[in-house]
């Protein structure tokens, strides 16, 4: 059993755009900083696997100074300790986080904590969604990044949100045969969204870039997958657009219905949640003293919002809240964009009717829609049908069930991720009397 | 004015639903009032270990009687009740506890309960993941495990088949001689009232001496074959008997899913439902002393629950002292799953003036409690 602990001024959990920025800023402001991420590589869902995380004005003109340019480079200040491949599983008492790697457990003592835990894809059940080769859009991208051969494979990308475009672009680069992008959002709302981007020059540029590269891929709005079919593995998908329905042969279906903020660790810490997001003040401080939150957990808003929130949180946690205030105007700009984004990619009611009685909603425990219909609350679904009781701890079925039935998941308890028993027996869970 | 019931039961835990079924089967018109979910309180929080215990003659009588009722129920229980006759192994840590193993075996055998002594070798063979060097244990093959929330739901449905009515999402706010008032303002006329509200029962019947005793449990991911029997350290008795504020004991149970359920902890005076890191730690360190390999298993979930504890560790089954037409079926501490079925029979026997299968006097709420809390 390992008995180790490390300490720091600022602990940053999550190494995506928000966390990387926060860690960099905090340590440059003089704070002894630890940055950890459960992935062996930093960058988050969006930057991982990229050769560099450099910001430049092509992607973003909001952040252009030197510190941003250094992000993710190898010259690491002594004050910054990086812990890739570690995840926080418990928070036994204020100022202590229990973290696990594949083989070790460590207690991290901190003065300030910045939660930059990002977001995950939302999945919705539909007939056939559990077939092999039906996967999350981000998940397929990650598998390709780690070696899944995709060249020449026929891929359909379906769901909602800007992530579909980013994944399509990536898969095209990898020479996949991307046959269709099916976006459930309406064409008119996307048009309005596109117009609003004129006030966000960087976004407009980004969107145009993507579109140019995707020119050869049909992009249909008001369109969604009604079922996936195949004998042992995926062979084709059935699609619908308005009154029209048709089939399309494919090897992979990549689905994702926008993003869900990862708020579990914040909830475990006792942070207040509002409309599914971590509630923060203008310094990115949560309702719990010394705990900050930045990026997608405070509201899905993309890279720019994450970076500026990471910067504000990093400065505030390092005691430079005054300095952070000069970024508030930029933040407001990003927050407006986030509002439009989430409005545009709101799920349409028709998606609630895709599943049949036999469709599994909880894949860990094989709970069907018909079984859930017999329940009246999330707790009843858990206790009487084992919904959400598997190793994903309800991360996948929870948001789907909330969309389908309006049930809110229960409070978060340790461990926030499946954790080794020994990680819950760390010596320093109890306050030392000395 | 709404429909009148012969009996209104507060609480749709395993005790309340068992009582509802028993009374409804006897022809009474029954309503069950449940603020949350059927089987969602201590019923959902416990291990679901159906076990014969010999803490006292009265405890033995009730657990043994109940276990026979469980064997009958098992035949009709749907698969989701996850009923499995795993048997219990009481694990001895030293030679002193082996003496207890021998005493316990003699006690059980004398009363018709099969119990077999395992020596060090047999114990290691039965449970290879226990730490080496343990002197032995007592194997009680008749004990079983169930998944209590689904059993409670099944009992409730059976009661409903016999005409019982479930009133979910509401609690009892006032009790009069001829009716109860619910939190939604409804008045429910009734003949008699049964308090089966577990650790919340003193709110309805103040002064009955039931106290909350908090417990923690943990469940792992799926590791089929890691544990084969319900394992309990013999020191468990010391933990259960201890009236000090905090204690832990080694309990491990194989679920039909291959998951391992790990317990147990006992706390008086802890009112909040939050998982307490220090109790969890103590409980798990204890478990790892007995089964070092547990340390590397992955936990998927932890939770807490509140046992309804009485000073003499026996449940309260019968008329609520000084309150006409009111009955108690509460105070089952850690044995509520096991003794729920016997409780329902004994309660119905009293209400219906039937001849009981075992004497109910030891469980009457009017008995004098030995307040040896800090002995």
Q: How would you portray this structure in words?
A:
- The complex is a heterodimer of chains A (434) and B (375).
- The longest helix of chain A has 17 residues, at 328-344.
- In chain A, the strands form 6 sheets. In chain A, strands 1, 2, 3, 4, 5, 6 and 19 form a 7-stranded mixed sheet that branches. A 5-stranded parallel sheet of chain A has the order 8-15-9-10-11. Chain A has a 3-stranded antiparallel sheet with strand order 12-13-14, with no helix packed on it.
- Chain A is α/β, with parallel strands linked by helices and 434 residues long.
- Chain A is globular and about 60 Å long.
- Chain A has helices at residues 17-28, 44-47, 66-70, 137-145, 162-173, 187-196, 201-213, 264-268, 302-317, 321-324, 328-344, 369-373, 378-385, 397-405, and strands at 5-13, 33-37, 80-84, 87-93, 96-100, 105-115, 119-121, 134-136, 154-160, 177-183, 219-220, 223-229, 236-241, 244-249, 252-257, 259-261, 273-274, 277-278, 291-293, 360-362, 367-368, 419-420.
- Chain A folds into 3 domains: 5-120 and 260-343, FAD/NAD(P)-binding domain (3-Layer(bba) Sandwich), CATH 3.50.50; 123-257, FAD/NAD(P)-binding domain (3-Layer(bba) Sandwich), CATH 3.50.50; 355-405, no CATH class.
- Chain B is α/β, with parallel strands linked by helices and 375 residues long.
- Chain B has 2 domains: 5-47 and 148-210 and 312-363, FAD/NAD(P)-binding domain (3-Layer(bba) Sandwich), CATH 3.50.50.60; 86-142 and 211-308, D-Amino Acid Oxidase, Chain A, domain 2, CATH 3.30.9.10.
- Chain B has 10 helices and 18 strands.
- Chain B has helices at 14-25, 42-45, 57-76, 95-110, 120-126, 148-161, 201-204, 236-241, 277-290, 336-352, and strands at 5-10, 30-34, 49-50, 88-92, 116-119, 136-140, 144-145, 165-168, 172-176, 179-182, 187-195, 211-222, 230-233, 246-254, 259-268, 298-309, 316-319, 326-330.
- Mean pLDDT of chain B is 94; it is low at 371-375.
- The interface between A and B is medium-sized, with 27 and 35 residues.
């Amino acid at each position: 059993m390992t008995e180790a602990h490390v300490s720091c001024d600022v602990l940053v959990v999550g190494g995506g755009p928000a966390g990387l920025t926060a860690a960099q800023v905090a340590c440059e402001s003089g704070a002894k900083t630890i940055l950890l991420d459960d992935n062996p590589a930093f960058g988050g869902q969006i930057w991982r696997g990229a050769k560099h995380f450099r910001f430049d004005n092509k992607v973003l003109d909001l952040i252009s100074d030197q510190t941003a340019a250094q992000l993710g480079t190898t010259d690491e200040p002594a004050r910054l300790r990086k812990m890739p491949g570690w995840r926080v599983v418990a928070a036994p008492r204020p100022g202590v986080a229990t973290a696990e790697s594949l083989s070790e457990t460590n207690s991290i003592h901190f003065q300030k904590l910045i939660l930059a835990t990002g977001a995950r894809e939302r999945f919705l059940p539909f007939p056939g969604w559990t077939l092999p080769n039906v996967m999350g859009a981000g998940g397929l991208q990650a598998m390709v990044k780690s070696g899944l051969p995709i060249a020449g494979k026929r891929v359909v990308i379906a769901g909602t949100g800007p992530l579909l475009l980013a994944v399509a672009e990536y898969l095209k680069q990898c020479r996949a045969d991307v046959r269709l992008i099916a976006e459930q959002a309406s064409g008119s709302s996307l048009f309005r969204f596109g117009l609003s981007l004129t006030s966000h020059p960087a976004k407009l540029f980004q969107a145009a870039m993507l579109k140019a590269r995707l020119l050869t891929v049909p992009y249909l709005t008001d369109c969604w997958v009604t079922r996936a079919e195949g004998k042992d593995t995926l062979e084709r998908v059935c699609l619908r657009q308005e009154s029209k329905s048709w089939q399309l042969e494919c090897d992979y279906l990549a689905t994702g219905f926008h993003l869900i903020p990862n708020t579990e660790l914040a909830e475990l810490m006792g942070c207040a949640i509002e409309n599914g997001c971590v509630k923060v003040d203008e310094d990115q401080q949560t309702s719990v003293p010394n705990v900050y939150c930045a990026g997608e957990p405070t509201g899905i808003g993309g890279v720019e919002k994450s970076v500026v929130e990471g910067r504000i949180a990093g400065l505030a946690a390092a005691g430079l809240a005054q300095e952070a205030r000069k970024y508030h105007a930029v933040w407001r700009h990003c927050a407006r964009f986030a509002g439009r984004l989430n409005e545009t990619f709101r799920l349409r009611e028709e998606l609630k009717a895709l599943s049949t009685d036999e469709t599994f909603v909880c894949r860990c425990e094989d709970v069907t829609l018909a079984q859930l219909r017999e329940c009246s609350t999330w707790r009843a679904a858990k206790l009487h049908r084992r919904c959400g009781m598997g190793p994903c701890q309800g991360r996948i079925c929870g948001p789907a069930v909330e969309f389908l039935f309006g049930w809110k998941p229960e409070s978060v308890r340790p461990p926030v991720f499946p954790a080794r028993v020994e990680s819950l027996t760390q010596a320093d869970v109890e306050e030392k009397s000395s | 004015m709404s429909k009148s019931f012969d009996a209104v039961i507060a609480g749709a835990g395993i005790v309340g639903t068992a009582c509802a079924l028993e009374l409804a089967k006897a022809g009474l018109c029954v309503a069950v009032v449940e603020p949350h979910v059927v089987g969602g309180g201590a019923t959902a929080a416990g291990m679901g270990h159906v076990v014969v215990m010999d803490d006292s003659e009265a405890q033995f009588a009730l657990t043994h009687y109940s276990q026979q009722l469980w064997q009958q129920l098992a035949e009709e229980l749907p698969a989701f009740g996850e009923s499995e006759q795993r048997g219990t192994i009481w694990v001895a840590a030293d030679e002193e506890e082996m003496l207890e193993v021998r005493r316990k075996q003699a006690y059980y055998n004398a009363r018709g309960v099969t119990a077999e002594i395992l020596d060090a070798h047999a114990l290691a063979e039965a449970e290879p993941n226990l730490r080496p060097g343990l002197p032995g244990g007592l194997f009680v093959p008749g004990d079983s495990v169930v998944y209590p929330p689904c059993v409670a739901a099944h009992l409730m449905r059976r009661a409903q088949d016999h005409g019982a009515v479930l009133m979910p999402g509401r609690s009892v706010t006032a009790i009069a001689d001829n009716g109860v008032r619910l939190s939604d303002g409804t008045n429910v006329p009734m003949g008699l009232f049964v308090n089966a509200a577990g650790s919340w029962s003193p709110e309805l019947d103040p002064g009955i001496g039931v106290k909350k005793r908090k417990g923690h449990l943990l469940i792992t991911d799926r590791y089929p074959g890691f544990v084969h029997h319900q394992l309990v350290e013999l020191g468990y008795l010391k933990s259960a008997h201890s009236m000090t504020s905090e204690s832990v004991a080694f309990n491990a149970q194989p679920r039909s899913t291959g998951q391992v359920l790990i317990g147990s902890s006992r706390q008086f005076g802890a009112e909040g439902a939050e998982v307490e890191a220090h109790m969890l730690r103590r409980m798990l360190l204890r478990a790892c002393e007995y089964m070092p390999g547990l340390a590397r298993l992955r936990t998927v979930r932890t939770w807490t629950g509140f046992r309804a504890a009485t000073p003499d560790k026996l449940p309260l089954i019968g008329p609520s002292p000084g309150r006409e037409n009111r009955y108690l079926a509460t105070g089952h501490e850690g044995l509520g799953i096991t003794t729920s079925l016997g409780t329902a029979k004994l309660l119905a026997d009293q209400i219906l003036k039937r001849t009981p299968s075992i004497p109910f006097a030891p469980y009457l709420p009017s008995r004098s409690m030995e307040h040896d809390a800090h002995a």
